[in-house]
Design brief:
about 270 residues; Ferritin; two-stranded parallel ribbon; binds fe (ii) ion; DUF455; Ferritin-like_SF
């Protein structure tokens, strides 16, 4: 069996979205199978690429150049699905990247179990959204997407705690804030395929945020650091802009992120 870090680099080096996520599922299944019965398969080390391989389409534009469309129109809703599919594909790479990039840090095996599971779920999310796009006569790559999604990964490539603070605990937590509104838009439009996909995503994303919080706190404990103080310092250092309320306090609490983590970083501070 390949080491987990090697498997991560293989996913990161695969460009096509459906192929990347198929490999991600296969590697996650191999890891799960190897872990049954409490075995400790090799994590190993491998050099992840600075930028993961991506398909030629979608064209990546600066956020301000991506055309805005109203969610009240069918085209607007397709654009919204396309944007979320893009986020999910980035998330697949982000989770495999954290596995490979920080594989030299000694960690309990549970850390790898969590991020393999998260990467597996993001792969499912991407495919669910691609299925929805295709059911509407579109596909991932049909529209331009945001460049700069990978910025947070690049900024924190040498800072493990910074990565945990910004990716799961800020960016994925933001997903918990905005997903209920998105589900409502598609419910009103009578689009049950999308509602079902988004419900799956919404339920599973809580765990990804929780993994972030769990391992962030673990590292704070290891280094005898105050989690709230360090979190604020890292987010102010790596995240450009302030956090936007309203916050989904209920789901954030479920994911182990108390209000004193995010309110002081919000626009209203
Ligand atoms: Fe996701
Ligand atoms: Fe996620």
């Amino acid at each position: 069996m390949k080491s987990l870090a090697q498997m991560a680099v293989e996913v990161l080096s695969t460009a096509d979205g459906r192929a990347k996520t198929a490999l991600s599922h296969a590697h996650a299944a191999a890891w799960r199978a190897a872990r049954t019965g409490g075995a400790r398969p090799e994590v190993g080390t491998a050099q992840p690429p600075l930028h993961p391989a991506r398909p030629a389409k979608p064209e990546l534009l600066k956020p301000r150049d991506v055309p805005r469309r109203k969610p009240s129109s069918p085209e607007g809703r397709i654009a919204m699905l396309h944007a979320v599919a893009h986020i999910e594909l980035n998330a697949v790479d982000l989770h495999w990247d954290i596995i490979a990039r920080f594989a030299d840090v000694p960690l309990p095996i549970g850390f790898f179990d969590d991020w393999v599971k998260a990467a597996d779920e993001e792969s499912k999310h991407f495919n669910l959204l691609c299925d929805c796009l295709e059911a509407h006569g579109s596909f991932y790559g049909a529209l331009p997407a945001h460049a700069g999604m990978w910025q947070a990964a690049e900024d924190t490539k040498d800072d493990f705690m910074g990565r945990l603070a910004v990716v799961p605990m800020v960016l994925e937590a933001r997903g918990l804030d905005v997903t209920p509104g998105m589900i409502e838009i598609f419910r009103k439009a009578g689009d049950s395929q999308v509602v079902d996909a988004l419900e799956v995503i919404y339920a599973e994303e809580v765990h990804h945020v929780a993994y972030g919080s769990k391992w962030f706190h673990f590292l704070c404990g290891r280094h005898d650091l105050d989690p709230v103080v360090v979190f604020h310092k890292l987010v102010r250092g790596y995240f450009h802009g302030s956090l936007k309320p309203p916050f989904n306090e209920e789901k954030r609490a479920e994911a182990g992120i108390p209000p004193d983590f995010y309110w002081p970083l919000s626009e209203t501070r």
